[in-house]
Amino acid sequence: MDGAELRGLMGHFATGVCVLTTDSPSGPYGITVNSLTSLSLQPPLVLFCLDHQVGGFALFQPGVHVGLNVLTNRQSEISRVFARRGVADRFRGVPWREGPHKVPLLGDTLAVLVCQVEATHPGGDHTIFVARVEQGWRDAEAHPLLFYRGSYRTLGQPLDTRGGDAAAPSAAEVAPAVDAAVDAAGAPGLGNLQS
Ligand SMILES: Cc1cc2nc3c(=O)[nH]c(=O)nc-3n(C[C@H](O)[C@H](O)[C@H](O)COP(=O)(O)O)c2cc1C
User: What is the CATH number of domain 15-148+169-189?
Assistant: First the structure.
């Protein structure tokens, strides 16, 4: 199967959308990814995959801290900006602040994971990065940005009301805890999580 056909096939697998961020000697770097996958609960691991052609590829070494900024359905333009080649400063005009380990954290996101890259594995023309989740915050009231068949979407109606994330705290409950956690890490708070 060729790459274009596989891309079209995998486009039928709906995903969320993240901006993967890290600090670099030339300032914050970020790139849109939808390869984020939950990997392990004990220890808490996630994985993401990067194309070897990605401009900031060399930044993502074991030991480096990264942010996985999960976008809301109001942030499709941010996803476009961070997926566009040749943009001099993708952070320009985008609200963000420095989080723990100088990880750039975008404002008004659905959730944030602050992780440390632990290992890399070969994956064809991509590399698989395994990262340990150190901290995370979420906004229970925002709605996710989805990527499906090459376009951005938002969630429809739930199919049933059983299970799910009913116990998740509200944004108003989460925001002070987020601010305290980020303050404790020596960074400015995430007021953005207040709706
Ligand atoms: C929805 C979406 C998801 C993407 N996911 C990934 C991904 O998981 N890994 C990857 O390497 N590129 C992914 N890309 C492509 C990169 O965002 C894009 O190639 C980016 O411009 C590369 O950054 P660079 O210009 O710094 O090389 C995705 C793009 C979009 C629009």
Answer: 2.30.110.10
**Both tokens assigned to 78:** 């941010």
Going from the first residue of the chain to its last (195 residues), give the mean pLDDT of each consecutive group of 10, the final group possibly shorter: 95 98 96 98 98 97 98 98 92 96 98 98 98 96 96 90 63 54 49 34
Indicate the SS3 state at residue 161.
coil
Domain segments of the chain as ranges: 15-148+169-189
Contact indicator for 63, 129 with CB cutoff of 8 Å:
no
Q: Is 35 in the pocket of ligand 1 (CB under 6 A)?
A: yes
**How much distance in Å is there from the Cα of 172 to the middle of ligand 1?**
32
Estimate to the nearest angstrom the gap between the alpha carbon of 117 and the chain centroid: 14
Q: Which residue blocks in the chain are alpha helix, DSSP H?
A: 3-10, 76-83, 171-184
What are 147-175's pLDDT values in tens digits? 999 999 999 888 887 777 755 555 555 55
Q: Ligand 1 within 6 A of 95 CB? A: no
Separation of CA 50 and ligand 1 centre (Å): 8
DSSP state of 99: -
